[in-house]
Amino acid sequence: MTDTPTPTMDTEKKAPETTPETATTAAPTRDDRRGGGRRPGGRDSRGRGPRAPRERSEFEQATIEVRRVARVMAGGRRFSFSVTVVIGDKKGRVGVGLGKGADTALAIDKAVRDAKKHLITVARTADGSIAHDVSVKNSSSIVTIVPSPGRGIVAGSAMRVVLEHAGVTNVVAKILTRTKNKLTIARATVDALASAGAR
User: Fold this and answer.
1) Residue 184 belongs to a domain with what CATH number?
2) Is the pLDDT of residue 95 over 90?
3) All residues at 6 or more sequence positions from 50 whose CB lies less than 8 Å from its CB, including other chains
4) Helices (H), the chain
5) Cβ pair 87, 109 in contact under 8 A
6) Whole-prediction pTM value?
7) Are 67 and 129 within one domain?
8) Contact 115, 97 (CB under 8 A)
């Protein structure tokens, strides 16, 4: 009796052929699993897009005085801040503002708005000075400004800040009183520049 040979099975398995239809996709990323990721148009899934660039103001500003004020109430003292700000474009326009608020940021915003309401335009000469001598009194402050060609700005305290932001140069400015109130000094300086020939 002869043994009938049994068919042998291949022990090696052939790897399935990969076609475009059966190609595996990449593993989902963390953003895909969460449904996140940026959407077309530069906005993400939370609806937040890129921040718009902040517009640059045409005026430069400087804070010349910050005071903390305490008011006595029934429940105790209540503190607030008083801020004096000078703004100007250094091309002839300048203003002084006063702002009060519960914090310095709020007070500065109010002071800037107040300064914009009180802008003046200074009539400057060709060399950036003023046409003639001027002396002005504001409250307890008396200031004088004298044109001085080739000297730059000879001034101190709040007067220098106002003159720099107004774009006025080649002047000598003096405070004729002993007051240290920077608000009245700055306002007197603005009044002096206005009386020198505001247009």
Assistant:
1) 3.30.230.10
2) yes
3) 42
4) 30-34, 104-117, 157-166, 182-195
5) no
6) 0.69
7) no
8) yes
- Judge if 92 and 132 occupy the same domain: no
Tokens 């910050």, residue located: 66
In a domain? residue 139? yes
Task: Assess if residue 46 is contained within a domain.
Answer: no
Average pLDDT over residues 136-144: 95
Indicate if 99 and 148 belong to the same structural domain.
Answer: no
The DSSP bridge pattern shows strands 60-73 and 171-175 to be: unpaired
CB 127 within 8 A of CB 147: no
pLDDT in tens, 103-118: 999 999 999 999 999 9
pLDDT single digits (tens) 179-196:
999 999 999 999 999 998
Overall number of domains in the chain: 2
pLDDT tens-digit map of 47-83? 566 665 655 678 999 999 999 999 898 888 889 999 9
**Parallel/antiparallel/unpaired status of strands 171-175 and 153-154:** parallel
User: Hey, which bits of 36-168 come out as E strands?
Assistant: 38-39, 43-44, 60-73, 76-88, 93-101, 120-121, 134-138, 141-147, 153-154
- Find the helix packing angle between 182-195 and 157-166, rounded to 10°: 40
pLDDT one-digit tens code per residue, 36-45? 555 555 555 5
| Ordered strands of the 171-175 beta sheet | 134-138, 141-147, 171-175, 153-154
The domain of 104 spans 60-120
Nearest-angstrom CA–CA distance, 110 and 131: 33
Q: Which two tokens stand for residue 82?
A: 């008083």
